[in-house]
Design a protein that fits this description.
This protein is α/β, with parallel strands linked by helices and about 700 residues long. Among the domains are: about 250-385, Glycosidases (TIM Barrel, Alpha-Beta Barrel); about 400-595, Rossmann fold (3-Layer(aba) Sandwich), CATH 3.40.50; about 610-680, Sandwich (Immunoglobulin-like), CATH 2.60.40. It is about 30% helix and about 20% strand. Strand 15 and strand 16 form a beta hairpin.
Length: about 700
């Protein structure tokens, strides 16, 4: 378990790149860090070329100086292994260490993350550099944590070179044991693909038409595991030399290429780089999803926001600034969703290079004339009163089931329609947050016993083990809500026969005969039980209930009168099925009904309000964050609350100004049903769009 105590409160700081600046700036940096309340910096992330300017020749003098200076000023160090970007000499010495695309193009020097994860010499140089750093700084008093590599898979999550092809074959041999088993799993009787020798198997490089889908799926699994092996190499060295120093590597939220559920087991603390677009209508929704995923990856353990922008980034077509106040409220959101650390990229905005227009805590104009500096300094001072949150838990009664294997499989080619997973997940997540719910993300194989409701926006790929897990959950009294096109294939991308959805027909009390995907821009009417009609998009199905109760029907064409939404009593629980992509209010109404039916406390929350509940030993904290830039909100509160950190009581009705954050402590459990919000547009259903709740 990661121990926050050595940091003395909430972690606060940034990536620090002193190698980009002359020495006379370093002491000024240390002084300003003290002024801003910084207690931790990430150091040396992109320093390989300076630390090892030539193969086997090391220069640690400048890093020694910076480490000593930071310690002198009371700033701890999250020290990087510096392996994130190999120096140019490595690519010159080992041309085949450069990664290859699916089209056979070998990438070249000039960017970052230029490495093939399978290259033996590259791995050996990584191991050697990591050991040099670990041994040199193991006893340094500034060392607080190890930062392994940086943003694995951000640019290169798949390399198609011959070295990776060989590793892929080894990985497949470990998975299947025999070619007979592989041929069966891959369905190679189709298109004359049967393999007679392991050497015949290649990565799914560019092919004349659709590559074998199971080959593609296994390739994604291998690619995630192959990079994970590179991470494990470094961690093995660090834990050998400094077993007491925690290790992390910074994740990127819902990054397609890496299975973070598997990766998170290898960390002591999860850390995240989060860059929601300030120009989005609701940037906090995407941020909140990533925050909740990070908390969920290690079973509710608090995590670190390792990177965020103080204001603008540099890599979008139009790089919006964070308006005054937005940075603060998004950091409060991270704390509310389980963060114990708030850090930025970067400390001082660069003068040169590809990221020179990325904002820093210290902007190009300097601290004295910078609005951004005033805001980050004020936040650092505010965090001193919020250290209690580092001991808080974020408990959820509702979880969204999520699996990288399903994501990879759903978005392979040759499907009934080109469906994207993340828009569906975001839509369901927004609806649950609009009901005032803390939301966890759970792996299909996880223990589901802590939850009342499991939502599965899409589970196209569902293993038999996952189906058994859900069956046990519903039989024991849980509520399961599944979205369309779920339970279709097993782990090998083989279709379950006899009527969809495969392993879950008995749980859902129905079978699906066929799908009727809608064309872009096309809608279909869905009639709710109360008579209200809504326009659904993307998808429709021919559903045959077998015990399930019909809650909504399709309203037109040959589907007219057919089931669109069902509910089925199974064991002591309930299972819902949505056969189409309902509009947001109707989806929210369905979820509200399901939650109310099992007495999950909820309140109706407009999209501009981020509401969360944290649990302390002595009670709970209600986090109320108005993320709208101009519109205030009025909130009616349960009695008995007082402001966290201040101790003064809170009135029964509170006005939340734009970008305001209110943290209200209660001695007992927060009564969500007593929370009433006026203003903003509700992200849940109107009364006419609610589906029935009685069973």
């Amino acid at each position: 378990m990661f121990d926050i105590k050595p940091f003395g409160g909430v972690i606060y700081g940034a990536d620090y790149n002193p190698e980009q600046w002359p020495r006379e700036v370093w002491r000024e940096d240390a002084r300003l860090m003290n002024e801003a309340g910084v207690n931790l910096v990430s150091l040396g992330i992109f320093s390989w070329a300076l630390l090892e300017p030539r193969p086997g020749e090391y220069d640690f003098g400048w890093l020694d100086e910076v480490m000593d200076l930071l310690h002198e000023h009371g700033v701890g160090v999250n020290l990087a292994t510096a392996t994130a970007s190999p120096p140019p000499w490595l690519s010159l010495k080992y041309p085949d260490s450069k990664p290859v695309t699916a089209d056979g193009v070998r990438l070249e020097v000039g960017g970052r993350q230029l490495y093939c994860p399978s290259h033996a010499a590259f791995r050996e140089h990584v191991r050697t550099l990591t050991r040099q750093i670990a041994v040199r700084y193991a006893a340094h008093p500034a060392l607080r944590m190890w930062h392994v590599n940086n943003e694995y898979g951000c640019h290169i999550d798949q390399c198609y070179c011959d070295l990776c092809a060989g590793n892929f074959r080894d990985w497949l041999h470990g998975q299947y044991g025999t070619l007979e088993a592989l041929n069966a799993a891959w369905g190679t009787a189709f298109w004359s693909q049967r393999y007679g020798d392991w050497a015949e198997i290649q990565p799914p490089r560019r092919a004349p038409t659709y590559p074998n889908p199971t080959q593609q799926l296994d390739w994604r699994r291998f690619s995630s595991d192959n990079i994970l092996e590179l991470y494990r190499l470094e961690v093995g060295v660090l834990r050998e030399v400094t077993p007491e120093v925690p290790v992390t590597t910074n994740f990127l939220g819902f990054l397609p290429g890496l299975d973070y559920f598997k990766w998170a087991r290898e960390e002591d603390v999860v850390s995240l780089d989060a860059y929601p677009d300030p120009s989005d209508a609701a940037p906090h929704l995407d941020a909140g999803m990533s925050y909740d995923l990070m908390r969920s990856l290690r079973g509710g353990q608090r995590w670190i926001l390792m990177e965020q922008a103080p204001s603008a980034v540099n890599w979008r077509q139009h790089n919006a600034v964070k308006r005054p106040g937005l940075m603060r409220v998004l950091n409060h959101q991270a704390l509310a969703h389980g963060a114990s650390g708030l850090m930025f990229f970067q400390w001082r905005a660069s003068r040169a290079g590809a990221e020179k227009y990325h904002s820093g805590m210290v902007q190009h104009v300097g601290p004295e004339r910078s609005r951004v500096w005033r805001e980050v300094k004020a936040l650092g001072q505010e965090l001193g009163s919020l250290s209690a949150l580092t001991r808080a838990s974020v408990q959820s009664r509702v979880a969204v089931m999520f699996d990288w294997n399903n994501w990879w499989a759903l978005e392979l080619d040759s499907k009934p329609a080109a469906l994207k997973l993340m828009p569906l997940v975001r839509k369901w997540y927004a609806a649950l947050r609009g009901l005032g719910q803390n939301v966890d993300f759970v792996h299909p194989d996880a223990d589901l016993g802590a939850y009342d409701v499991i939502a599965l926006p899409n589970g196209y790929l569902l293993t038999q083990g996952a189906a058994e897990n859900l069956r046990t959950f519903v039989q024991g009294g849980g509520t399961f809500i599944a979205g369309f096109f779920s339970g279709i294939v097993d782990k090998h991308e083989h279709v379950g026969l006899g009527g969809y959805p495969g392993f879950l027909r008995d749980v859902l009390g129905l079978w699906v005969e066929e799908w009727a995907p809608l064309q872009p821009g096309e809608t279909t009417r869905v009639r709710l039980e109360a008579g209200e009609e809504v326009q659904a998009t993307q998808w429709a199905e021919v559903i045959h209930p077998e015990g399930a109760e019909v809650l909504a029907t399709f309203g037109e064409d040959y589907l007219a009168g057919g089931a669109a939404v069902t509910r089925h009593a199974f064991g002591a629980g309930q299972a819902y099925y949505l056969g189409s992509d309902l509009p947001q209010p109707a989806l929210a109404g369905l979820l509200e009904g399901a939650l109310r039916a099992v007495n999950v406390p909820l309140c109706i929350v407009p999209e501009q309000l981020d509401l969360s509940v944290s649990t302390l030993e002595e009670g709970q904290v209600l986090h109320l964050l108005n993320v709208h830039p101009t519109a205030p909100l009025t909130v009616t509160l349960p009695a008995g609350g007082e402001r966290l950190g201040g101790g003064d009581s809170v009135p029964g009705t509170l006005t939340l100004a734009p970008y305001a954050a209110e943290l209200i402590r209660y001695a007992g459990v927060v009564d969500l049903a007593a929370v009433r919000v006026q203003g903003g547009e509700a992200a849940v259903a109107s009364e006419q769009q609610k589906l029935p709740v009685s069973g």
